[in-house]
Records
---
Amino acid sequence: MPDREYTAAEVDAAVQAISDPERIRHAQDVTAHLAPQLQRILNEALAEGGYFGNAHESEVRRIAGEPDERERARGIRLMVAEETRLGMLVGVAIGFELAHELQRRQGE
């Protein structure tokens, strides 16, 4: 199956379809099985992208050293939120590639 771009309407319909509890359960089962491999791929992608290099470590030290407790807590919340978003975005990209690879293999 050739790669193609999806319209917003197609993606919206697909998201609606996968919102079914039974499909979510199946996806969770598959993901639990693949978790170690997916974690390795995610870590490699984040490392190669430079997301957790020197700049990240510097920000961790800056936040940890913040003398004001409220500002330190705010910095931690912000960093966790940003890292969560980043992990989700990279995870979605990996998921797309996994889906494409599975589709290619069906055509063999």
Note: Residues 38-108 form one domain.
---
Amino acid sequence: MTQPHPLKFQDPKIAKLYRDVPAEQIARLREFRATQTWKETTIRGVAWRYLDVGQGAPTLLIPPGALGTAESGWQTISHFAERGYRVIAPSYPPSITTMNELVDGLAGVMDRAEVGKAHVLGGSYGGVVAQVFVRRHPDRTEKLVVSHAGCPDPERGRKIAGALRWLRLLPMGLLRAIVKKRLAGLLPEGHAAAAMLAAYVNEVMTYEATKAGLLNGFRRAADFDLNTTFTPEDLADWPGRMLLIMADDDPSTPEPVRQAMQALYPQAEVHMFHGTGHAAPILKQEKYYSVLETFLEK
């Protein structure tokens, strides 16, 4: 079943959010929305929505970042679809509270799309999801890219679990403001592409996000940190190849985290960006895509 895109850019209230965004970028997003439709399916009683773009033989599975919506990766989806890939990009159902249930749902989406194996590309929160996916579904993972993400951190998990005790009591408006501020802290300032991302975050948080979805995003993060144990031997029998993408000044993955990731994945290739913070896909987009293409096409 397919549905038209729920966020209509021609709505004046939405267009107003993009008033500081360059016209060329607005036109590209408008075109994407005009040409894509959502597909819907039910997996283990949970409704899933996803984008299925492109007709190529190599398939990319792109779990989204913290926003949880497939369309947040629209530029990457478009880029690889135009280069002969098929891209499956699901949105996270707001009702799911654990990482295992989430990645099993992703595998279910692949089943519905009749995809046996795929390259898995996860950035930030999506990079956390990708690490769980390859362990639960190694037979579905061709190659793995983890970008700007860390490994389980019990201390962080305890902080998130503690914060959830009061976050769940907040009205949606205040919860939305807290999450927007948290995300804004990862965005670069004074860059044209950053204006687009900031406007997009504002749109999704205002018109699409739900309180359950936001809270359960935190619950899944706490579940990952508190209930997950990774070792370098986990993927010893997995025949695929892996790429870690990092930045030397990413506030979400400081040097100890980057070192821990490289120790956890000694078999992985590593590409380090410099001076891009958490936003290498924005500030160095052409280079970022070049790194991905080189790895995937080897």
Note: Confidence is low (pLDDT under 50) at residues 1-7.
---
Amino acid sequence: MPYDERFITPMRQELTRLGVQEMRTSDEVDQALADAKEPTLLVVNSMCGCAARNARPGVAMALAQAQKKPAKLTTVFAGQDLEATARARDYITGYPPSSPSIALLKDGDVAFMLERHQIEGRSADAIAHDLAGAFEQYC
């Protein structure tokens, strides 16, 4: 059952205010990702504490600090936009469902992935460092 939108909106805005495109339907996911050849960041956002403490701040820091950045920034919200999240996970092949998670797609394939177990318990700085390294390598 989806969460109360009043609680979710600020969590969505942490990414959308950075210019991250929110995808709330499976059609929006396909429009954004189906033919994307350029490096594309896909954040599977979540209500959990590790998303608030580590993942979203790590994404924000990486985007602020990195010299190279993905051409396209996208996100879905797990536990809320169920259809969009399920469809987005179809683009993250080879990885089990995980939220939060952060994928960097290039030419339609996963070039870099941070799963929940690589986010949980780590600092936002460490996550930003990993993402900035991936941006440098693949963007």
Note: Strands lie at 21-22, 40-45, 72-77, 101-106, 109-114.
---
Amino acid sequence: MGRMKKLLKSGTAAGAISGALPAAFMLRNIVQLRLREAGAERLEEAGVVRYPDQVREEENPRSMEEVMASIRDIPFNPRPYGGVLSTIIFALPDVIPMILAARSSTSGLLYRYPKPFKRLVVDSEDGTPIQAVMALHPDERPRPALIMVHGLFGSKNIWFSQQVVLSAYYGWGYNVMAIDLRFFGESKKLSDAPGTGGWKEGQDILAAARFMKALPQVTSVAVMGGSYGGASAILASAQCGDNCLDGGVIAFCPYGDTAKQVSFISTMPKLWEPYSSVYPFFMACFQLTKAGKYQGINTFEQFLKGYSAPHYGVSPEELIELSSPALHLDKVKVPTLIINTVDDPVIPVEQGYILQEAGKDNANVDSVILPAGGHCGVVTVDRSWMSKTVRSFYNYWAWI
């Protein structure tokens, strides 16, 4: 505990758990959301709705090789922030929302979605109820759908998830959905189903995708996930046998070897190690999520092996295997793009290389390892590259 207190007080923690800076970011973002909402409402009232001039014919041949050739031509010019700083800048708007999301009673209180978004519950593949929000364009023209998936201890209401969803809806012309994976956000109000590290969460994503794919105004379904959500998205693509993710999957900063990753995030780092910048925050979220439950379980690794595995009737080894994306990339039949960074302080770049090696023989999978961007913070170091890459990939696969 002494080392924990030192980490909480250290400069490397950068005020991530307490202080005025996260609150200032949060208040600024709330104002921006309301202004954006008002502007979008004016556009809709004026009949200005995003829709492409041309929609690609479904029978036209497409390939990962073709789209990745165009993506690799997009220049990447990152700001020189370093992995820790870019991670902190990216995470600051979500410090308070994630702390609130750790408790069922306060989850979803901040960053509410605007009027077009409707709350709904989707039953996962095993019947577990999943809380979601969805927005469909009122003109009912056939459009692709994008599903956004949060990371560890996140929720559909975190700033980054909401920005992707609002951009896709108002700016790109997509129908959209954001979900709370089981054990997180408002989904934990609906059931006691524990998280698994990606296996069951992949099924949560598939259930959401199949729900949207069945809607008459949805032509294809795409998914974006970051970190834990990115790994879950890869596992969804590996378990998708009915082409329900035909709009493509992008996974930012996912892990490939779950055993190594949960051990890494569950082990207290040295003060000088980059991971010490976020470890106190992760542990605070975990302790809040526990809320007196799971006696004798003090780390996320212990939680997965000692609680989740027996809950789902599998051994700890089976759970880890089922939740390790690298072991399942050979099963992926839908376009899947994996993006990791060299300076990620949370998911070491080794995980990116594991995924790259595991997917190299699958024509449906491609991997990019960027020299900078920290943990899911690529948008903070090069917003242009992030925007162009995401739009290029999804527009290529989704608009059919």
Note: The mean pLDDT is 89.
